[in-house]
Amino acid sequence: MYGKIALVLAVLYILLNVLMLRWVYQKPKDQRTPDEEYMRATLKKLLVTRHAGSPGHKAVRDFLDKELMRFGYISSRDDFFHGINYSNVVGFLNDQAEQYLVLTCHYDGPSPRKGGEDFLISATDGAVSCAILLTLAKTSKIFAKALGQNLGLALVFFDGHESLATAPGNKPLLYGSKNFVNKNIISLERIALVLTLNLIGAPNQTFPSYSQNEDKNHNRIAEIEHKLRESGQLVDSHILFQEMRSYGNDLPDDHMPFKEYGIPFLHIAPEKYPNVHQTVTDKVENLHWPTILNMIKILRQFIPEYMESIDFINYGYFDFDDDVDEPTLPKEETNKW
After folding, report:
1. For residue 203, how many other CB atoms are within 10 A of its CB?
2. Which of 153, 173, 273, 292 could form an S-S bond across to 163 if both were Cys, CB 3.0 to 4.6 Å?
3. CATH number at residue 70
4. pTM of the full predicted structure?
5. Which domain holds residue 155?
């Protein structure tokens, strides 16, 4: 009698263990969000050597152009020559607008070191920022609802950030953004705010405000992150936008030609170059995905809020109760570069 009970219990125990093992192996893996799925697919297209003049450079440029058109943007190219041929890629929502929110990054990569065989695909240095802007562009219907007759959205992917002569450690040359400003691709008086992304995707990054010009919009982004985090909408990770200042520590980037003309700007980049910067280790395997996914959610909230709240008298800033000095432009737009 006891032997039969023991046998039955042993069989049940074995069956239970088999079922548990089967459940473990068949348990579905954590589902990736649509943002992450698109980001990963997009990075596969972008993570190639893409210095100006290379086949990868042309392939990335054409991919950006096609994706913008696929998402309903009017896409155009700003071709220019600076020793070699370059081409900025520009996408518009409402190309007849009086004022534009301009989102920018650069898509070109550094050339291989002289005499070396290091082929740099530069994930944090341009590629992730491009993929973030395209991910945001994919939800353009959200932004279109916030666009009145007077407001437009422009996405600009700059070329010539890194030149063929740029070696690791040298400052970027910013050919694309300088050309964009000097040619008045968008009249400078019609730019409400330039938001520039770069060097995003390394672990433990934070993004401070680099000047008083940025403070109000930066604080607004910090508030948005706090609310999204409190409501459980962000991936569990460190805080990206604390209300902190780091004046004088701004890395050179494509917002600078706009800054020289007094255009309001918001530079979303870390204070220091990532450890992987311009090395072969700057690749998808070393990216910090919580930073990237949270950045997308925060910016997706900020962009329509900014466009709905813009003050056309003091353009470029949220219309808070306190006074904001109106940004001024030089009387003549001379070629400074």
Report:
1. 13
2. 173
3. 3.40.630.10
4. 0.84
5. 34-309
